[in-house]
Design a protein that fits this description.
The complex is a heterodimer of chains A (about 280) and B (about 675). Chain A is built from 1 helix and 21 strands. Chain A has about 280 residues and is mainly beta. Chain B has about 675 residues and is mainly β. In chain B, the strands form 4 sheets. Chain B has a 22-stranded antiparallel β-barrel. Chain B has one domain: Beta Barrel (Maltoporin, Chain A). Chain B starts with a helix and ends with a strand. In chain B, strand 4 and strand 5 form a beta hairpin. Chain B is built from 4 helices and 33 strands. Classes of the chains: A mainly beta (about 280), B mainly beta (about 675). The interface between A and B is medium-sized, with 21 and 31 residues.
Chain lengths: ~280, ~675
Amino acid sequence: MKNLKYLSILLLAIAFFSCSSDSDSVQENPINETSGLVKVQELSNDNHTVELYTETGKLIQGYNQISLRIKDKTTNKYITNASLNWTPIMNMSTMKHSCPKSLIEKVSGKQTLYNGDIIFQMAQNTSAFWELKINYIINAIDYTVTAPISVSASDKRTVNSFTGTDGVKYILAYINPKNPKIGLNNMTVGLYKMEDMMTFTAVDNFKVKIDPRMPSMGNHSSPNNTDLVQSVSGGLYNGKLSLTMTGYWKINLQLLNTSDQILKGEEFTPENLPSSLFFEVEF
Amino acid sequence: MKTIATILLATFTSICFAQKEEKDSISPIGLNEIIVIGKKIPAYKKQPKSLATVEEYLQQSSKVNMVRRGGYALEPIINSMTTERTIITIDGMRIFGACTDKMDPVTSYVEVSNLSEATIASGQQGSCHGPTIGGAIDMKRTNLMQKELGWNGIFKTGYETNNQQKIIGTSIGYNDSSFYFNTDFTYRDAQNYKAGNHQEINFSQFTKYNLSATAGYYLNKKSAIEGAIIYDKATDVGYPALPMDVSLAKATITSLRYNYTPTATYFTNWETKVYFNTITHRMDDTKRPSVPIHMDMPGWSDTYGYYSKLKGKFKKHHFMANLNGFYNKSIAEMTMYPNNPKENAMFMYTWPDVRTLYNGLYLEDAIQVSQNANIRVSTTIGIHSNKVADEFGLQSLQIFYPDMNASKNRILKSLSGNYILHHNKFEYGFGLAYGERAPSVSEGYGYYLYNSNDFYDYIGNPNLENEKSFEANLSFGFKTGKFTSNLTSSFFHIQDYIVGKIDSNIQPMTIGASGVKIYNALNYATIFNTDLNLEYKLAENWNFKTMFVYSYGKDDNNNNLPFISPLRYSGDIQYKKEQFNIGFGASGNLAQTKFASVYGETKTPDYVIFNLNTGYTFPWNDNKLSIQAGIENIFDKYYTTFSDWNKIPRQGRNFFVNVAYTLF
């Protein structure tokens, strides 16, 4: 009886190992690294095709997490040793400008997949469109690819682009919670200032005050929210967003500088009602 | 605490000494008040208005008062304490209302036709069926055992002019030597009632159906098994004192009982019951002319329970043990519909699927220590646990209590001792007790529960301590052939007394609310109630009864507590001869000058109303036809009392007629 038990364990182990060697061979061609992602579009030059992915297959106004991979047109294989950077460009009739973006890094644990974030402060319209320029280096050779991208408008306010009382142009973007829930949500936003038309840098040591309200229910608020602050310099702003029920919430905001002066946004009162600086969530 | 423990210990010691003497054994006197409700009762006990509501019956007790939110489902107060601090059971079964706003007390799910009597126990004397502070009401169902064999049936109907209430009921049963069954049905339908001066109170209508069946089988001479069900459904119930009405309040109450009566042992009776009840409650604001936002607020409460009660007699001891437990599941939700139909509905749990499990053991011994002295001691120990079963609901509460766990366990204890001495025509009683209770579902886990009486949103607090009551009671009786008097007093010192405390940092959710109160504990509160009942047989057939009740309640800052009655009195004179009776009575309150301003109360003026009733029973085709009629609030007084939610006025002049025809 006992022997039978050991034998069965042995058999099981053999079966298990033989299986795992099978899956090793599959990983030779890591096609499944984009599972859970939907392709947005391809950008193509003579040598390569750059594929863009997001969770929804769309680029929208506000914060976007974008994954990329590069396919060699001749070998049909995905590149594993590229280094990339990107520049989104808004083409308007009278001017061009960029937007806040992160570096592009290899996704840890993946071989062909790279990712980064872009915050589009505006959507495209009939007279203005976005272009994405990607420069990349493979085996010390520089390549570049540029193509128009489609950035649709967000139906909720997820990004604010404004000039503070200090005369500086800021961009404040909603990042988390992606799927808000009843309770205390970890809230994350990105805050950037415009150095020039093409350069946006993270702002350090400011504070974002939040005051979520339900306009459809007499503008009641919620308890125990915490202001958003940076945990590391150059990083995002984090705090607690309290949502007491489902529905449409307007998160009234105030931006404070390092000396606690209000640069933008008004305190919510029954008289002046919502702040001019806000985000919206609905769930 | 220490002193009280010492006194209790001393009481116990004296019992132990006392045990040694003695010889004769008589049944110990009951400390509890019993209100007879049933239909087949001796004529002298018959109520002048037999189709009155359960609440009207209970209110005859000097220990009981009612919070009124309209014409239906009054909330009983025992010893000046509301639902959280009391226990109301049906034949020992625990039932929990499904409404977060206490619109459905247990008493609203039964009918007088279901019941034979109600036992009202003050303070810890009511702890037999679970932990309580203020006391207990056990509503006993009709017990059909040992009735005459064959069919029995009664048809009942009634009408009341004030709210055009129509009542129809039947009661049909059959008794055999080996089995029995009984069914009853009651239907009530009422329009808006009119307060004094013909002022119509809108949204005070109601419709209620109640159906009940009991069937038993004698397994042998000693044991019987009985199944019982009550189905109660109220629809279109208005609550004029509240911002919402009720479209449905439905209860199904079922039980299976096994009864064993041994002979010639120390044990006299063993009764075991398993039960289940389920309640659905739906609030409705669609009929109100203007609401800031339309909302649905349904609630559900399911309770599974059991008890096993053993009674016995050994020399001078009459003892009882009751092992009992229940598992309750309470869910209530709120969905608000924005004016913009494109927006998502606003949803939250107001009771986040709270599970309560309780198991306890109650032990009681009544000892005859001498020819004219009795001692009664009782104790309970119970394990009480709460769990927030819904993750979504737990996260909601974690907004307020980030470190809150889903579960919380408590141990609840009680101990009480009473000494009763008879001396000639006098009877003296003295008792001390200690008891604990766990916070209610609303107090522990409620989420933005709007109280339309003080205009605050209430938030539960899972970290509340058990409420602890130290109680002393005294009674004094004097009885001659013609005159009976009874004075009883209870004093409660309640530690960690749970109340809502304003938290000015939190904004209310409800449109128009003044703020938010979080359930919290006062260091202590004191409540004192005393009542005097006098009964005098003026002459043959003439009987005069009067009652005075005084209550007092203060918190630890010497503020008045809410829902404390001003001096309340009543008196009536009855003439009963053979099949005829007539009575005239008055009842009233003094002005409530010691109102709880801190808790949002305002002054209520005094009132007195007068009532007249009469009844006659005719023989009719070998059967009996009994007619009762009367006038309540004869002078159509416009009045409101301390316990009327938002000062909603009470009923004005009302003529009633109740008819009962014994079919067979």
